[in-house]
Amino acid sequence: MNIKGIHHVSAITADAKKNYDFYTDVLGMRLVKKTVNQDDNSMYHLFYADEKGNPGTDLTFFEIPRAGRTYPGTHSISTTSLRVQDDKALEYWRERFDAYGVDQDPIKETMSRKTLAFRDPEGQRLMLVSDENNEGVTAGTAWDKSIVPQENGINGLGPVHLTVAEAAPTAKVLTEILGFRKVGTFDDRIVFETGEGGTGAEVHIETNPELHRERPGRGSVHHVAFRVEDEAELEKWKDKIQDAGFPNSGLIDRFYFKSLYFREPNHILFELATDGPGFTTDEDEGHLGENLALPPFLEHKREQIEANLTPLETTNE
């Protein structure tokens, strides 16, 4: 049993079209799956990733059209990192963000890595992280048909940043249940890693007891998922989490992967997700994300589902 790294991060948008435009036209990520929230089929679920949605590269969004603004605070996943291959790529992004009017901070160095923090149009808190000095989990492959040159492209998810009022309960779950290792601190944040380590396998915990609890909305993160090898291993994790006294969802078939959800003591939603079978299960790799994809158990409701969605053109060209 080994958590291999970050699998995906799922966030909230109030406008699927504007979200699609930013993440494909500005960030140059590939939409690898246009589907619906399986728990509420009235909303889109969009998956952006590398060339074919390799595990560890997916940033996903649920569309909730009436989502209000986010009031940042504790009990939250407060920054999502995106990997690029080297420091030179960050200079490219700094200039690109200037050209597109993206809200950004200066490039800075954190734990021997250069980083560039920025916000999307809804205030989603994001950070580009250079892999120039990285050792650990291998990144994905940036899409070669992206508007962004492949050598500068986003190729995976980096460290996930949690903000809590008290770090110890979350740290205990990470280390004693999920098998993460504490590897250091910076700026009053504690760094944990799993598997092969590196930017694709880290969780950073910031403690700030003076903040109020976050009120999520558009631009907030719903959950983070961690990678496990397969369904057999996921079953073992279910038993371990139950034995530790944490209520959980049990195994859920998301068609593209199998999942299990539970909340750690600071009420942050963790998911464990299998590496496969992947996004090419129901679509050709060359045409991922171009049509509304539904898992077989929702296909009989296609007409009803499509009638409740605002059409979204996603040509991936």
Automatic annotation (TrEMBL):
Pfam families: Glyoxalase. One of its GO terms (molecular function) is dioxygenase activity. PROSITE patterns: VOC (PS51819). Keywords: Dioxygenase, Oxidoreductase. CDD domains: PcpA_C_like. Residues 5-131, 156-275 form the VOC domain. This is Ring-cleaving dioxygenase. It comes from Halobacillus amylolyticus.
